[in-house]
Amino acid sequence: xxxxxxxxxxxxxxxxxxxxxxxxxxxxxxxxxxxxxxxxxxxxxxxxxxxxxxxxxxxxxxxxxxxxxxxxxxxxxxxxxxxxxxxxxxxxxxxxxxxxxxxxx
Length: 105
Prior knowledge:
Elements: H1 2-31, H2 34-48, H3 55-80, H4 83-104
């Protein structure tokens, strides 16, 4: 009888973990949609810069500079540290991207 209660508890626990994992999967899918990526990168850049950033530059930076894996890393840094540390990670990449863009133009 005692074993049955333990297994019922474990079964409900695993069901709850499955539900939370599915919610987390959908949260990451939404986070990695392109509009969400651009808004997040803009927020991180504006947290460390005094001037506003151009949305076209941010779109191009997300597409060709960071790509999806770079945005994911910045999300993870922001989630586990602070937005300022994410900006500290992102700023050299942004400056390098803008310098390369200025050389092309």
